[in-house]
Amino acid sequence: MKTLLRHIRIAIVILSSSVASAQEFTTANVFAHNDYAGDKPFHMAYDLRVGYIEADVFLVDDDLMVAHERGEIRPERTLEELYLRPLNSHILKNNGFAYEDEKHALTLMIDLKTPGFATLDALVACLKKYPDLLSSQTLQIMISGNVPDPKLWKDFPSFIHFDGRPGIEYTPDQLARISMISTNFRSHVQWDGEGTLPAQARATMSELMKTAHSHGKKFRFWATPDFPNAWKELMRAEVDVIATDKVPELVEFLRSQQ
Predict the structure, then answer these.
(1) What would the pLDDT profile of 94-109 be if each residue is shown by its tens digit?
(2) Under CATH, domain 27-257 is a member of which superfamily?
(3) What's the distance, Cα to Cα, between the start and end of the chain in Å?
(4) Cα distances (angstroms) measured from residue 8 to each of 1, 224, 236
């Protein structure tokens, strides 16, 4: 009997490992965190066909400036110059699609660093100058950071989607505006990315993701460990979106896993 139980336990472990790695990860799962901090903002991540590109913006006078800190703002680094214009050019070239492959979608996440209502109003006005962006079926604009109160989301055009948070009771109308659910990894899990992801950490992550999935939303952690072993363990945990500051390295890692 003891031998039988031992074999059953081994079979369960093998099955669990197989299930945990069942999801296929591609560049569509890659989130280019702080993309503007790289040598080639937008272009590098876009050329690697990632699913998500992030830009932080400050509203300065009437301009949307791309930077992580206010002291890093430079006159030439506007949201239009770095992201909207080149993206618009690609969409025109791709007959209205974000990428040449019409099945490959792109989300441009704009993290508002200045007060949400005024900054978002300015962003809406800016986006309306690019109707081809707004009509693309494979491009989504997602807002994070200083997001206005969910009760006010209805006051913004339907092409604006939002980055939700776990633990908030959203109304059905508000959920419809949410692109994904995100949270700080360090607020829930204390793991440095070395070795195997602890069982308790995996269970905590699974519970957060399960709740999001029950609403039909993908889940993203930010501030995750950012190197190959951590990526491997996040994939085994079936995290929907893997955020990274090392886009080329993560893309190459995913290709090697395939």
Answers:
(1) 999 999 999 999 999 9
(2) Phosphatidylinositol (PI) phosphodiesterase (3.20.20.190)
(3) 40
(4) 11, 34, 22
pLDDT at 6 over 70: no
Q: What is the CA radius of gyration of the chain?
A: 20
pLDDT tops 80 at residue 14: no
| pLDDT band for position 22 (cuts 50, 70, 90) | low
Q: What is the DSSP string of the chain?
A: -HHHHHHHHHHHHHHHHHHHT-SPP-GGGEEETTGGGSSSTTHHHHHTT-SEEEEEEEEETTEEEE-SSGGG--TT-BHIIIIIHHHHHHHHHTTT-SSSSTT--EEEEEEE-S-HHHHHHHHHHHHTT-HHHHH-TTEEEEEEESPPPGGGGGGS-TTEEEEE-TT----HHHHHTEEEEEEEGGGT----S-SSPPHHHHHHHHHHHHHHHHTT-EEEEES---SHHHHHHHHHTT-SEEEES-HHHHHHHHHHH-
pTM of the model: 0.90
The predicted model gives 186-209 an average pLDDT of: 97
